[in-house]
Amino acid sequence: xxxxxxNPRYLITVTGKKLTVTCSQNMNHEYMSWYRQDPxxxxxxxxxxxxxxxxxxxDVPEGYKVSRxxxxxxxxxxxxxxxxxxxxxxxxxxxxxxxxxNEQFFGPGTRLTVL
Amino acid sequence: xNQVEQSPQSLIILEGKNCTxxxxxxxxxxxxxxxxxxxxxxxxxxxxxMTFSENTKSNGRYTATLDADTKQSSLHIxxxxxxxxxxxxxxxxxxxxxxxxxxxxGTGTKLQVxx
Lengths: 115, 115
Prior knowledge:
The complex is a heterodimer. Chain A is mainly beta. Chain A has strands at residues 4-7, 10-13, 19-25, 31-38, 42-51, 54-57, 65-66, 76-78, 87-94, 105-106, 110-114.
């Protein structure tokens, strides 16, 4: 089944304890992205990757890191989480964006709470 | 600033009734507009996509319209069902240099269909 998977789905942690949220897709998509979703603010892009070893900042990159060593994986790293990073996180992937009909396929989400 | 605004923020309708959700945008240069459905606790799923030259697109009981001149879109749901209860997100893309499509998400309309 074509899908985007994220792990963990739920995580409660404490301030300053490094964590990684994994994202994997099996559709051979070039483009991958991380979003956070907060009430009243909609989805906001954190980082995106056009292909392996190519990453760039989105709208809210502060406090996050990413890497893209393999095409299928795009982990999100919080080196020193803070309470304002408590949010619902989504990973998404899509095929090459040269066309006008690219569709992003979203993972199931990771609900993170930082105490 | 590129923005996507949706109205109403929330809506409650009786099962079987029709409803229309609105999306106004200022994103430019416009590439395409998608409507996504997001069930509670899950990732968004694409319903329809429209480009500049398309002014209506249907997907079952969902019909989206686009007026590129006034930068407005609507999503009409016919004969609503309990399973239509979800958030509906309007997403507008613009084409950046290098072929990358920058997406801007609306904050969504939360629809509740009651028996």
